[in-house]
Amino acid sequence: MQRILSSWFIQGMVKATSDMWLKGWDERNGGNISLRIDAEDIEPWRDELVKAPRVVELSQPARDLAGCWFLVTGSGKFFRNVQFDPADSLALLQITEDGMAYHIHWGLVNGGLPTSELASHLQSHAVRKAVSGGLDRVIMHCHATNLIALSYVLPLDVPTFTRKLWEGSTECLVVFPDGIGIVPWMVPGTDGIGSATAEQMRAHSLVLWPHHGIFGTGPTLDEAFGLIDTAEKASEILVKVYAMGGMKQTITTAELIALGERFGVTPLASALKD
Fold this sequence. Notes:
Strand order of the largest sheet: 2-5-4-3-1-6-9-8-7
Number of strands: 9
Radius of gyration: 19 Å
Number of helices: 11
Order of helices and strands: HEHEEHHEEHEHHHEHEEHH
Helix content: 25-40%
Strand content: 15-25%
């Protein structure tokens, strides 16, 4: 067995993909994850990387990520199977120094390519790396059931959707005070939806793809998972509330403001308007 399989980043990806599948967020080959890794974390495993890595051109330059390493899920790979054969389902890649391509240094041993949403991931990584001062390292996409359901019945504007999620569960405002960004429905796997998502990620750590799924970011796999999990739990509560006839009482604006003050966060101002 390769020693690299015991590395924190591969073990972390195995746990994240397994947890997401068990949640019902990643049916078949749905969903994808990318994790930015420091070069120092790769060094202990250098002898297990392929000697002549495959080179794949990017559909658009990623100059802001030149030289960066990423562990990503593979295109067409099932999250439920990552735990059984990580070397088949994952890819360890490095962006070239000119930002025009990437080298696959490990993984995808039975062929294939990284996720078809790689362009979207890299665009969002570049934005989140800049706005977080390098702290955010994970982009996580999945088909969270109740968030998708709400995208069919709630107005698709940032203040309204954010406010309803905050009202759905008290901890939501604390976990994502920056609210949830929203892009219009677009064909997935394109540079266009990647650009639109990255633009929303300048201001939001969560971005909804209506009728499709959710993108989340964070410093770690656990943080990104927990962010989506919190929003999805609130969405589940809201789905049940609407099925029971709708809200008869809720968290008020004054209470949301007090909540933000108590936990030292600044809520998205547009979502606090009555």
